[in-house]
Specification:
The chain has about 210 residues and is α+β, with helices and mostly antiparallel strands.
Amino acid sequence: MDYYNFNMNTFGVNNYVPYGKLVLKTAPTSNPISLAEAKSFLRIDSDFDDDDTYITSLVRVATGVVEEFTRRRLITQTYNIFYDDFPPYIDLQIGDVASVTHIKYYDSDNVLQTLATDQYDVDTKIRPGRIYESETGNFPDTYDRPNAVEIEFIVGGLADDIPAPIIQAIYIIVGRYYENRQDVVMGTQVNEVPLMVNHLLTPYRLLELWL
């Protein structure tokens, strides 16, 4: 008998739910912490601007490290995810999903269509977000072609909404990279995610679960 298992990437007994191909469409227009905040944390005088470009790049790098570790996206951005056909349900793979813009697909005649919103339900409470067939809807058949299904969705939010431990983790990584500008410093390997950062981020990490 088929069943939903909402905590695994499976659906039913023999219906595996594949991961889609995730593509960033619109990058965030701001960072979780500002240049001024980063310089204050690093105890750099606000009038000293020689390293401003470098520090800004470190904030972006640190944000990327945190996002990849947690499988979350912090600041509002837009993604597309592609499937070769409709899976039993759609795992959006990253959190926190704010909304789904559209679902498009190539029908059995190879014509691009937009799936009506009454055909599916979006669960933004679960992380990562998921899309299911609605009670009265269904996912249609698609043409046999790569990337026949495209979902566009918005993920992330405002800097003020990011939990304090995640912000602190970004600060620590920025400080670590600013002080250690090479991979190896005096024979000591610089870890990508320091232990303190690991402790801060682990409660917010979205794990991949498999049967």
